[in-house]
């Protein structure tokens, strides 16, 4: 997992995005940022077509 961004760099990102947070919340978000990047890396790109998803191929009860 990547290291958190330096506080000054993360603060600059918040300013650029127009996000104003209390210092404590900004620090929590800065520390969570690497975990968010790791989670985003697990998403499939491009997403699968709807017909490839199991939820769209299963029918139960009256739907069958």
TrEMBL record:
Q: Which domain of life is it from?
A: Bacteria
Name of this protein: DUF4089 domain-containing protein
Upper lineage ranks?
Bacteria, Pseudomonadati, Pseudomonadota, Alphaproteobacteria, Acetobacterales
Q: Which organism is it from?
A: Sabulicella glaciei
